[in-house]
What does this fold into?
Amino acid sequence: MDDSLLVARVVAQQDAAAFGELVRRHQSQVRNFLRKLTRDKDAADDLAQDAFLHAWDRLHTFVGHGTFIGWLLKVAYTTFLQAKRKSTRYQEILAQAGTENDAASATSATDEITDLDKFLAVLTAEERAVMILSYACGLSHREIGDATALPVGTVKSIIFRGKEKIRDSFGIEDHKYG
It folds into this structure.
């Protein structure tokens, strides 16, 4: 059964099993997106749970334009922004995102700092979100615009500037492949 049919069942019948299937299908992508934004596994897992609770409450607003995962990532991003505004902890994490110590504390259990973590650390929270939605989640510019409430032209500019910032920060000169 595809996502839109599951959404219809949840909205029409408050079908918890159908919503559970949607969560099962998309929880990894939502958690990974939030982990890259927060750089804190535990906080990202908490935010993912909050995002799915918000999604349950707001599922009736999904009208089928775009993909369900695009809509769900918008809910996750909004949940992240709301939590960030409420907590100085998120502000401190983002303010120190460029330091090696923070990157090391936010990495996997092997304590290796990946190139991706280093690249994302030089970006602002908004740039990080747009780049992750584009490259890690595979959303179109329009879907990213919907998820972040940004115009498509702004999304394209953020992606361009983000790539330039990464290239400049790490001295990458040969970038004919993106």
